[in-house]
Write a structure and sequence with these properties.
With 277 residues, the chain is an alpha/beta fold. The chain has ten helices and ten strands.
Length: 277
C-alpha cells in the first residue's frame, strides 16, 4: 500500500500575513523568495495540530494566550547559524585594542559585554575564553561575565549545554581546547564550568520597545542579526544600542552589515567596528 502525504500549500496571502507578523514582532524581513523555506519549516506544525491551512495555524499562534505557540513559531522561522571564531578579526581587535584600552578606563573592574543574537553559544563562549586568557591571574579581581541573549529558546537550550562536536571547536587555539573543554568522547567536547559560569544566557527580543538593563555595556556584539532587518528597524535598534553603550564603548556588527554613517552617532573605526565617542 502506497502512503500518500498531502502537502498543505502556503498561499501568497497567508505568506504576507505571516511576513507582516514576523516583521512587526521580531524585526525580521521575509521576502517572497522565502515562501518555500517558510512552508518547509512550518508545515510540520500545521499538520501536527491537524490544521487545514496555514491561516488556521496562524490564528492559533496569535490567539494563544500562553505565548508558547508564538515561541515555537519563531524558533522554527529563525535561522541560527554560527560557529567558533566566526569573523576572527573582531576577536583579535578586541584582544589587541579594545581590552587594553578598557582595562585603564574601568575603575571598578566591572567589564560588561553583551552578545546579542548569541544563537547556540559559540560567540559568547569565545569571548569568555578570550577574556579569561587576557586577564590571566587578574581575572579573580574582575567581574567580567557576558550577557548572551537570543530570541530562540531552542538555540539557548543548546548554548546552555555547551556541548559541541570536536569538528566545531577545531578552529580554536590548541591551548583553549586543552584548558577550556572537557572531552566527552571521540566526537564531542563540553565547555568547562570555568567558562560556562562566565556566560549568562537570557531570552530577549531585540524588537522590545524598551531595553530595561540596569547598566550600560562596554562592548556589544550584534553580528549577522541585522542583515534580516530593513533600514528603519536597523536604525532604531542601533539607536538603542548607542544609548546602552558606555562612553568609549564599542559595537561590533557582521562584515555583511554596515551602518549609515550619516544617521548613526557611532563613529566608524574599521569595517564592522564602531565606537561611542
Amino acid at each position: 500500500m502506497e502512503l500518500v502525504i498531502s502537502l498543505i500549500k502556503l498561499t501568497e496571502k497567508e505568506f504576507k500575513q505571516i511576513a507582516d507578523y514576523v516583521k512587526a514582532n521580531y524585526g525580521i524581513q521575509l521576502k517572497e523568495e522565502k515562501m518555500a523555506l517558510v512552508t518547509g519549516r512550518l508545515h510540520g506544525l500545521v499538520t501536527q495540530h491537524d490544521f487545514k491551512s496555514f491561516s488556521e495555524y496562524f490564528d492559533y499562534v496569535v490567539n494563544d494566550k500562553t505565548g508558547e505557540a508564538a515561541i515555537t513559531f519563531i524558533n522554527k522561522i529563525t535561522t541560527n547559524h554560527t560557529y567558533f571564531m566566526r569573523e576572527p578579526e573582531h576577536f583579535y581587535y578586541l584582544r589587541d585594542k579594545v581590552l587594553p584600552h578598557l582595562m585603564n578606563e574601568i575603575p571598578n573592574r566591572d567589564l560588561r559585554i553583551w552578545s546579542a543574537g548569541c544563537s547556540s553559544g559559540e560567540e559568547p563562549y569565545t569571548l569568555a575564553m578570550l577574556i579569561d586568557e587576557y586577564l590571566g591571574a587578574e581575572k579573580k579581581n574582575w567581574d567580567a561575565k557576558i550577557l548572551a541573549t537570543d530570541i530562540s529558546l531552542k538555540a539557548l537550550d543548546e548554548a546552555k549545554k555547551g556541548i559541541y562536536s570536536n569538528k566545531d571547536i577545531a578552529p580554536l587555539p590548541a591551548h583553549w581546547k586543552l584548558n577550556y573543554f572537557t572531552k566527552i568522547d571521540s566526537e564531542t567536547s563540553a565547555v568547562g564550568d570555568s567558562i560556562k559560569n562566565e556566560v549568562v544566557f537570557r531570552r530577549f527580543n531585540l524588537m522590545n520597545q524598551t531595553f530595561s538593563f540596569k547598566k550600560k555595556f562596554h562592548v556589544i556584539f550584534c553580528r549577522n542579526v541585522m542583515i534580516y532587518f530593513n533600514n528603519e528597524t536597523k536604525h532604531e535598534l542601533v539607536s538603542k544600542f548607542y544609548g546602552l553603550t558606555e562612553q568609549g564603548g564599542y559595537l561590533f556588527i557582521g562584515h555583511a552589515e554596515s551602518l549609515n554613517r550619516e544617521l548613526t552617532k557611532f563613529k566608524f573605526i574599521m569595517p564592522a567596528v564602531y565606537r561611542k565617542e
